[in-house]
Every structure is written in C-alpha cells, then in structure tokens.
Design goal:
The chain is of the alpha/beta class and 511 residues long. The chain is 28% helix and 25% strand. Strand 11, helix 13 and strand 12 form a beta-alpha-beta unit.
C-alpha cells in the first residue's frame, strides 16, 4: 500500500459528500462540534497556510498542546497537506523539551498558551503560533486566526508528499530516560486504519469517545483515522474523569469508549457511578495488559463488554478484539497485513499454543526508524520488527500476550512471567492490584517478589498469600516475599512501573 496524504483528503471528502452536516468531532467539555463539511474546508485552509509558509514534504510542524478540537484540526490539517506533524506531550516530556525541539528542527511550532513554554520556544529558530480556537476571526494572532484568513479553494494545495514521506514523529512516554522519537511514514500510519476499524468492528454509525492523549500513537490510530475512514464521529475529552466518564458517554451517545487498565480499575473501584449508558457497545483497553480477573469484574459490575487490543508506537494497532464478540484473556486476532509470527530465540516460527517472541513484518521492505539526538533519522530494523513482547496464538488464531521479554524474571536460569503470578493473586476478591518483579539475589540471580494492594477496608496477611500461591503453582514461581502496599506506581498511560518497584525494594534495604 503506497497511500499518501491524498487518502486522508479522500476520506474527508467522501464523508462530507455523504452528509456534510454530520458531526466529525464533539468537544465533551464545552459542547462544541465540527461537521465533516466544516472539516473539509478547514483542512484546505490549513493547507493554504502551510503552502504560504513554504513548508513541504518531510518539513516538520511541532505541536505542543493538550487534547482539544484545535489540536486535532492542526494535526489533520498538516497530515492532509502532506507535511510532518510532530506531537509532543508537554507534561510527560517537559524535562526533555530542550533536547527534543533542537533535534526536531521544526519549520513551524504550534503551541497551547498557559503551558509555560515561552522561554523555551524563544530559543528555537522557527515561526510559532499559539493555537487559539478554530473559530478565531482572521484578525487574531493565533494559528487558527492565521488559517482563517484563507478561503477554501476548489484545488487543494497539497505538498506533494508520497507514501514513503514522513507523516508523524511522536515521542514515547519517557520518565527518566530520554523519550524515543518514533518516525512513521504515511504508508505505515494510514495502512493501519481500515484493518483496525475492521478488527474492532467500528462502522460509520459509531461515535468513539476518547480521553487519552492524542499526542500518542494509540489515540491517533484508533480515534482519528479509523473513524475518518468509516465516516464515523469522535467525542474528545481533555482527560479522564471518573465522575464524568459515563455522563459524557450518555450525553453524546457514544457507542465505543476507550480505556486502559488504570482507568478501568478507577471505574471499577469507584462508588455511586451511574453507568446507565444504553448507547455503548463496548469499551476498549490497551497500553498495558488487562488481567482477566479485572476484565470479568468490570463486565459483571457494569454490564459493559471490554474489547482489549494490542499495539505499539512503531506499528500502530497489531491486534484487536472484535467488539462485543471479544475473547476474554486475549488481545484479539492479529491484523493480517502485519504478518505476525510467534518465533523462538533463533527466529524460527512456532506452532499454535507455543509461547515465544512476537514479531511483525507486513511490509517486506519497511524500515522502522527513530529520531536521533542530532535530528537525523536512524533505522532500527528492516523488514521484520521485534516487538519485545512474549505470547502465543491459540488454535482459533487469538493472540495471548504473556509479558515483556525484558520483564521476565530469570530465577536460577528458569524464565518466570510476572503476569502469571499477578493473575493468580488477582483471583482473590480481597486484592485490587498486583505487580510481581524480579529482585537481585546472590544465589539464584533473581528472586520473585510481589507487591499487593488490598481492597479498601480489608486486612491481608502476606504469609497467607504466599501459602495460597504455593497451593497452585510450583515452588520456584512462588513469591519469596509479598509486600502490602497502598498503591502501585504507574505511568500516565496505565502501565505498571516495575522498575520503580525494584528501586523501592532496593531503597528500603530489601523489603
């Protein structure tokens, strides 16, 4: 597939031709909306503005803003024109902005006022605009105001980019380490849209509710391009709110909602939530493994199906559960074009039911690339891509992700998956969160330690939990210690920070 930015323009045009008054996007907090007809005219004005800024293919536009209608208007306008949009999560990457921006060498900067960026941006030799509001008058000194000086012409002023041109540079959610800048071509980005929509069963009548940061690949490749390809609608929230989550779904008639294990857990452990949302077909979960016990508890309490999916910043969505027909404990069936295989340590394919490394390679000639510290693009691998995850395909072709290769606990030369122990402990009704890690051990190399969060108001006995594990699993997998904790460290994306737990163990002198 050699799709370039013209494919995005075609999706918008087709949706507008079907019904130009159909909402493309709703803003959950302030009830604003943009129709497909308005979107078509808006991206054309953005393109005219970028043309007059002399921005061409592979020229970079840095976008430093939180979720908003304007964020997505800028994002889609740059994509449809054919330049490279660079999305940066300011709060997650604030300590790295002084190295990220010089490496990007942006030709244009669009930023949100109030994020404390003025001093930093003054050091970057590029024109910059506060993003403003999409309905700003042409006299306003904002990005939206500058765009609105233009009329939507019949001929779209495209940059001339192709499928191999750079579409997006996005940054992983780094904490202490410098975040990686993942570079995606138009082909990589857009080839993911139709298979993802089909994998989740997303159609033209759906309304997708998403509160996750649109600076990250997961939201971009689920809630921007699949709805656009199907002519569906999007409801965008600024951030997750437990008190407003179901209210937003109810108000806007969302049929699909997005989530991750952390937000599902917050809903599951919340009180007095009105979850009467008859329009909702299912909620997705991604970014981190959702333990089957939490999955079942959520569905039993709220009567809402959970469709877990799986992907990466480098590849977009890899597998998706088919909406209401999800299979608990799996991340769904792999998207066929990725050419997913389960391989052993030597790269040999494994049979169904055999666990190994998850590897992709749908485009035989593809290059998986990152932004170097000096601004050049480096190639990490060619052809096939190693995800770093472990798993297996069952007899029906559903993918089971069993952990991260780098998180395996190697005790006396034997590999132990932390997720297996987490899942066992989560079967206890008096436990609401678990994380198992490998800590240094002089004899075995690593030893197994689990951190457990009790349900509020419940008193747990760590030794009794160890005995419980001993009754179910072999001795070498049983945690040497179980530590009770008020909470477990997680990233903003809901991923357990197991490194922080190992550091906590070390700081506390071994528990």
């Amino acid at each position: 597939m050699q799709a370039g930015p013209e494919l995005v323009r075609d999706w918008i045009a087709q949706a507008a031709a079907r019904n130009q008054d159909k909402p493309w996007i709703f803003s959950a907090e302030d009830e604003r909306r943009i129709t497909y007809g308005e979107l078509q005219r808006l991206v054309a004005r953005v393109a005219a503005f970028l043309r007059d800024q002399k921005i061409g293919p592979n020229d970079r536009v840095a976008l430093l803003a939180n979720n908003s209608i304007e964020h997505l208007c800028c994002y889609l306008g740059v994509i449809a024109y054919g330049a490279t949009i660079c999305t940066i999560h300011v709060e997650m990457n604030r300590h790295h902005l002084d190295s990220i921006l010089p490496a990007l060498k942006p030709r244009l900067i669009v930023f949100e006022d109030g994020l404390g960026l003025d001093q930093l941006l003054a050091t970057v030799p590029a024109p910059r605009f506060a993003i403003g509001r999409w309905d700003d008058g042409a006299g306003r000194d904002t990005f939206c105001g500058a765009v609105n000086r233009y009329e939507a012409a019949d001929a779209f002023p495209a940059a001339g980019a192709g499928g191999r041109s750079d579409a997006v540079i996005l940054f992983t959610s780094g904490t202490s380490a410098r975040p990686k800048g993942v570079v995606l071509t138009f082909r990589e980005l857009l080839a993911n849209a139709a298979p993802t929509a089909a994998g989740f069963g997303l159609g033209g009548d759906d309304r997708v509710y998403d509160f996750r940061s649109f600076n990250w690949c997961s939201a971009q490749t689920l809630s921007v391009f699949p709805p656009l390809e199907r002519g569906a609608s999007v409801i965008i929230a600024q951030q997750f709110s437990r008190s407003r989550f179901f209210a937003h779904i109810r108000t806007y008639g969302a049929t699909i909602a997005t989530g991750n294990p952390t937000t599902l857990g917050m809903l599951l452990n919340g009180e007095d939530l009105d979850a009467d949302v008859p329009s909702l077909r299912f909620i997705t979960s991604s970014s981190a493994p959702l333990l089957p016990e939490d999955w079942r508890r959520f569905e039993e309490r709220f009567g809402i199906r959970v469709a877990q999916g799986y992907g990466s910043s480098e590849t977009g969505w890899i597998a998706a559960n088919p909406g209401e027909s999800r299979r608990v404990g799996t991340v769904g069936k792999p998207l066929a074009y990725h050419g997913l295989r389960i391989v052993d340590g030597d790269g040999r394919p494994l049979e169904a039911g055999e666990s190994g490394r998850i590897e992709l390679g749908g485009f035989a000639d593809n290059e998986y690339r990152y932004l170097g510290e000096d601004g050049t693009i480096t190639v990490d691998s060619r052809g096939r891509f190693k995800t770093g995850d472990l798993g297996f395909l069952d007899a029906d072709g559903y993918l089971h992700v069993t952990g991260r290769e780098k998180e395996l606990i190697i005790r006396g030369g034997v590999n132990i998956s932390p997720l297996e122990i987490d899942s066992l402990l989560m079967q206890r009704a008096d436990v609401i969160d678990v994380a198992t890690v490998g800590i240094p051990d002089a004899i075995y190399g690593e030893e197994v330690v689990s951190f457990v969060v009790p349900r509020p108001g419940v008193r747990l006995d760590a030794d009794e939990l160890i005995r419980y594990c001993s009754m179910v699993m072999p001795a070498f997998k049983v945690p040497k210690r179980i530590l009770l904790s008020d909470a477990l460290p997680r990233t903003e994306r809901g991923k357990l920070d197991r490194k922080a737990l190992v550091a906590r163990w070390t700081q506390d002198g071994g528990g």
